[in-house]
Amino acid sequence: MSNSIKFSSLDLQPTLLSNLVDIGYEEMTLVQAETLPQMIGGSDVLARAKTGSGKTAAFGLGLLNKLDATSFRTQALVLCPTRELADQIAKEIRRLARGILNVKILTLCGGVPLRPQLASLQHSPHIIVGTPGRVLKHLGKETVKLADLETLVLDEADRMLDMGFAEELDAILKFVPKDRQTLLFSATYAESIAAVSKRVQRSPVKVDVTDDEQPAQIMQFWCSVTRENRNTDLVRALRAWGGELNLVFCNTKVDCAEVANYLRSQNIVAVALHGDLDQSERTEVLVRFANRSASVLIATDVAARGLDVKDLDAVFNYELPKQAEIYVHRIGRTARAGKQGVAVSLVGPREERRWQEIDELLPDANPTKCGIPDAKRSADPLSPSMTTIQISGGRKNKLRPGDLLGVLTADGGVPGDSVGSIDLFDTYSYVAVRNAQTPKALRQLAKRPIKGRMYRALVRK
Ligand code: AMP
Q1: Atom of ligand 1 nearest to the CA of 28
Q2: How far apart (Å, rounded) are the C-alpha atoms in residues 168 and 177?
C-alpha cells in the first residue's frame, strides 16, 4: 500500500497536515496519492477503488481542504449505500477534521426516526453524509438546503445502483448547484457507472488503483464423462470446484431446463435462463442470481449475452460449445477483476475432437485433465448466503428502496448490512436478505406498513 509519498508534499491546509501527523497518517495510500493532487486542484475525479484502499480519507481530505468552517451552510454532501458505511465515513471525516474548529458533520440515513434529524438540522451542518432516500426526503421538506454545495461525493456508486438508488440520485442532482466538484468512487467500472459519471461529472480525471492487481487467471479443467453420468458428474464438479456464484452453459434450452430440474432435485438452488422465459420470469432469474440467493445459473450462450454479473466463482461447460471461440467467451466470465477463476468442461466421447480444437486455439492455457473429485468439503460451497423476498408493491405504489430498507431495519429489526440488493419493478419488488435474517425480515414486513399500506411478502424459491 505504501508508495512513499508523504502527505506533507501536498498543498493541504496546515491544520489538516498537522492533524494527519497526530493521527499517524504519514504516507499516502495509492488512491490518495493519485486522487488528492487532482481534488485539491479542483478537478472532478472518477476513481475505481475498494474499501480498505484509504478512499474515505482521500475524498475526506479533498472536501475538508476547501471547507469554510466559519460559514454555516452545507458545503459537502457524501452519498453512500448503507447506514453502516455512512457512520464509518462520518467517523473518519471527524477524525480528519479534528484540527478545524466547530465543524458540524451530520449523518442522515433511512431506517431511523426523522424527528431527531429534524432537530439536528435546525442549524445547517457543514458536511452531510447520508443514504440517497433519506437525503432526498429532507430536500423535499426543505430541511436540507444544498444551494451552496461545493463538493458532492458518491461513494460505492456501484453498490448504490445495485440497491436501486438510481432515481433518488437523479432527483438529488436537481437540488445541487451545477458549479460544484463531484467525486465518484466505485469498486467496479460497469457501463452503468460510466453513465452516471457522464450525468454528474465534468471532464473527470480517471484513476484506477485496482490496475496493478494480477491479470485474470483462469484455472481450466476438463473431465471425460459419459452421456448417462453427465448430470451426476456436473453435481460433483459443482461441489468440488464451485463457489457462491456459478454459471453452467448448455447448448440447448431443453438441456437448460432439464439440468436445472436435476440440480434442484439435488437441493442446489439453481435458476435457468433460456429463450422461453417471459420478461418477468427472466427478470426474476437475473435478480436472484445477481443478489446471491441462487448459486447456480444455467444458461445458453444466447441467453447469457446480456448477463452482467461480476465475481463469478466458476464457469462450467455442461457440453462444449460448437465453436472454439465461444469457449473463450464462456470462460472469460470468471476471473474478472484480477481474481482467480475456475473453468470446468465436461467432455463426452463424441466431443473429444471439439476439445482438441479448443486446446489448439489456446496454446498457453494448459487445461488439466482430471477425474471428477468426490468433494468432501465440510460446508456446502453452493449454499447461497442470501434469500430473495418478494413484496407485492413496487414503483407504481411510489415505493423507493429507502422505504423498504427503513421498514426492514426499523426498531432493532434486520441490521442494515444484512440487506442486499433491492430491486423495484412496477407492481412488485425483490429484496435480498442474509439467510439468518429472513424470518426477522418477514416479521418486520408482516407487522409494519410501508408508506401507510400493508403489502404481502413471500420468499422466492
Ligand atoms: P477506507 O478504504 O477508506 O475504508 O480506509 C481503510 C483504513 O485505512 C481506515 O481504517 C483508515 O483509517 C486507514 N487509512 C486511510 N488512509 C491512511 C493512511 N494514509 N495511512 C494510514 N492509514 C490510513
Answers
A1: 19
A2: 16
**Per-residue H/E/C for 89-127:** HHHHHHHHCCCCCCCCEEEECCCCCCHHHHHHCCCCCCE
- Mutate which of 35, 92, 156, 159 for ligand 1 pocket (most atoms within 8 A of beta carbon): 92
Buried b (16+ CB within 10 A) or exposed e, 378-399: eeebbebebbbbbbebbeebeb
**CATH number given to 386-460:** 3.30.70.330
For 7-208, CATH number out of 3.40.50.2300, 1.10.10.570, 3.40.50.300, 3.40.50.150 equals 3.40.50.300
Instruction: Identify residue 58 by its one-letter amino acid code.
Output: A
**Residue 181 CB-density burial (10 A; 0-12 exposed, 13-18 middle, 19+ buried):** buried
- Say yes or no: CB of residue 55 within 6 Å of ligand 1: yes
Question: What does pTM read for this prediction?
Answer: 0.57
Give the H or E element holding residue 269. Answer: none
Asked whether the domain spanning 217-369 has the same topology as the one spanning 7-208, the reply is yes
pLDDT in tens, 325-373: 889 888 888 865 556 789 999 999 999 999 988 888 776 677 888 887 7
CATH topology for 217-369 is: Rossmann fold (3.40.50)
Tell me, what amino acid is at 204? P
- Ligand 1 atom, smallest distance to 53 CA: 2
pLDDT digits (tens, 9 = 90+) for 136-192: 999 999 999 999 999 999 999 988 988 889 999 999 999 999 999 999 999 887 788
Cell of 152: 458532492
52 Cβ closer than 6 Å to some ligand 1 atom: yes
Residue 267 predicted with pLDDT over 90: yes
Percent share of the chain, pLDDT over 70: 95
Domain positions in the chain are 7-208, 217-369, 386-460
